[in-house]
Specification:
It is built from 13 helices and 23 strands. By secondary structure, the chain is of the alpha+beta class. The strands form 6 sheets. A 6-stranded antiparallel β-sheet has the order 10-11-7-9-8-12. Strands 18-13-15-14-19 form a 5-stranded antiparallel β-sheet, covered by helices on one side. Strands 2-3-1-6 form a 4-stranded antiparallel β-sheet. Helix 10 packs across helix 13. A hairpin with a 2-residue loop joins strand 10 and strand 11. The chain folds into 4 domains: 120 residues, RRM (RNA recognition motif) domain (Alpha-Beta Plaits, 2-Layer Sandwich); 140 residues, RRM (RNA recognition motif) domain (Alpha-Beta Plaits); 106 residues, Alpha-Beta Plaits, CATH 3.30.70; 74 residues, Alpha-Beta Plaits (2-Layer Sandwich).
């Protein structure tokens, strides 16, 4: 297997070589173009092993040692092997939901000409090398025959709601996502997702099957769907056709805010075909849009920027669950109307707000520190682009990791507030049911904790006092402590929520206000 080691030419020599392989686990090795892979699933194929290395350069040889759950992968150059190692060291790859561990081999090259049972390995390599590197045929060469471009994704152990935009940002790292449909079946949150190319679906399954979005929560189980093409009727929070931005939103769903629509390109950016053209790249790369530079990788992982502090956890720079920043920069505020408490109440709909700081010299800007980046992403998804006190909010990740409190003796005129121990946090318990009821801002508000002595007229007058126009109101038939109120606009509802959440209605009842998923 190296220049100093004669190639084994019989089965005994093969076994001897396999015995030497275990030494790779104990000794640190210098960089080599041969990589040693451990804990390979027994049913893994040569094509799957090759696909781990293919994005980083040409794969020149492979040796499978299934009896030891090991494999050797030889890259064309040491540089390609180093790139592959640098990528997979912080982000453990998975094959068939099983983590694969990779290290440099002691061997400098593979010599397998005289080894038995190498026909399948050589056939897989030949399939790759008969087409031009980087072409669609290259990426499709390893795709199992008959596999389509539609994936079915089941998300287990959900602790947080997963917006369609979040799923798009994850899966679009592996190619052009044309269509997505989310639904719940058998009490399981599922996603149907169509790529432009079968190879995109293949690489996404290889990389994400068994991974979790938030540490141990929201784990992907991915397989290939029998459907060849998805049909999407509406572009809303449950489904999206990125090739048809002209589709209606549907009667029961809120519209996509302009900032969300722009994130998926403008009409004409996406090709209006079911399969999509070869090599089609999505309009927006999330890492670049969020202000982060993605590392350079060969296709098809050229836009992937996964890192992982915990094995099996999907993380993206500046994205949900990432050690990017839990702090949001909120700009274009109305300085005459906004207060730290107002931002605490509004952003607190989507997570627990720890601190708020309105900038002393630029009061139209503020920093909002959420409990974690998961909640920061959620708040940004839903509040960016909303109107508040006559201004359109702009929300993005901050470069700061925390909001600093004023030093003792400093007077910042009450512009910085610490809410880390507030009793108004909605999501103090991990996996809180409140996350299941999170929805985008809407003109209809859900009200709760209403004392029995309060009447319909009392509630209408209360909301009218905020300057809102009440269009409809009704108590829940089965629970008179809860009600729905419909105002004239989303902006009115946002303002009313800020001003009336935790309002004292008497009898030790403080009003609870949130956005409703339904209308009256």
């Amino acid at each position: 297997m190296s220049d100093s080691t004669p190639a084994p030419d019989n089965e005994n020599d093969t076994k001897k070589m396999e015995g030497d392989d275990t030494k790779e686990d104990k000794l640190p090795c210098s960089p080599s173009r041969v990589l040693h892979l451990r804990q390979i699933p027994s049913d893994a194929t040569e094509a799957e092993i090759i696909s781990l290395g293919l994005p980083f350069g040409k794969v020149t040889n492979i040796l499978m040692l299934k009896g030891k759950s090991q494999a050797f992968l030889e890259m064309a150059s040491e540089e390609a092997a180093t790139t592959m190692m640098n990528y997979y060291t912080p982000s453990t790859p998975y094959l068939r939901s099983q983590p694969i561990y990779i290290q440099y081999s002691n061997h400098r090259e593979l010599k397998t000409d005289n080894l038995p049972n190498q026909s399948r390995a050589q056939a897989a390599l030949q399939a790759v090398n008969t087409v031009q590197p980087g072409s669609p045929a290259t990426t499709n060469a390893l795709v199992p025959e008959g596999q389509g471009s539609v994936l079915r994704v089941i998300v287990d152990n959900i602790a947080y709601p997963i917006a369609l935009e979040v799923l798009y940002q994850i899966f679009s790292r592996f190619g052009s996502v044309l269509k997505m449909i989310t639904f719940t079946k058998n009490n399981q949150f599922q996603v149907l997702l169509q790529y432009a190319e079968p190879a995109n679906a293949y690489y996404a399954k290889m990389a994400l099957d068994g991974q979790s979005i938030f540490s141990t929560y929201c784990t992907f189980r991915i397989d290939f769907s029998k459907l060849s093409c998805l049909r999407v009727k509406y572009n809303n929070d449950k489904s999206r056709d990125f090739t048809r931005l002209d589709l209606p939103f549907g009667a029961s769903h809120p519209s996509i805010e302009p900032f969300t629509a722009s994130a998926f390109g403008t009409p004409g950016t996406f090709f209006p075909s079911c399969a999509g053209p070869p090599g089609f790249v999505p309009h927006m790369g999330f890492a670049q849009a969020a202000g982060f530079a993605a590392p350079a990788f060969p296709a098809p992982l050229s836009s992937v920027a996964f890192t992982s502090a915990l094995p099996g956890q999907v993380t993206l720079p500046g994205f949900t669950g990432v050690p990017g920043s839990p702090v949001l920069l909120v700009s274009n505020l109305n300085p005459e109307a906004i207060t730290p408490r107002g931002l605490f109440i509004l952003f607190g709909v989507y997570g627990d707000v720890y601190r708020v700081k309105i900038m002393f010299k630029k009061k139209e800007n503020a920093l909002v520190q959420m409990a974690d980046t998961t909640q920061a992403q959620l708040a940004m998804n839903y509040l960016n682009g909303q109107r508040l006190y006559g201004k359109v909010l702009h929300t993005t990740f901050s470069k700061y990791l925390a909001v600093q409190l004023p030093r003792d003796g400093d007077d910042d005129q009450g512009l910085t507030k610490d809410y880390s121990n507030s009793p108004l946090h909605r999501f103090k318990k991990p996996g809180s049911k409140n996350f299941q009821n999170v929805s985008p801002p809407s003109a209809t508000l859900h009200l709760s904790n209403i004392p029995s002595s309060v009447t319909v007229d009392d509630m209408k007058k209360l909301f009218a006092s905020t300057g809102s126009t009440v269009k409809a109101f009704r108590f829940f038939q089965k629970d008179s402590k809860m009600a729905l109120i419909q105002l004239d606009s989303v902006e009115e509802a946002i303002r009313a929520l800020i001003e009336l959440h935790d309002y004292n209605l008497g009898e030790d009842h403080h009003l609870r206000v949130s956005f409703s998923k339904t209308t009256i």
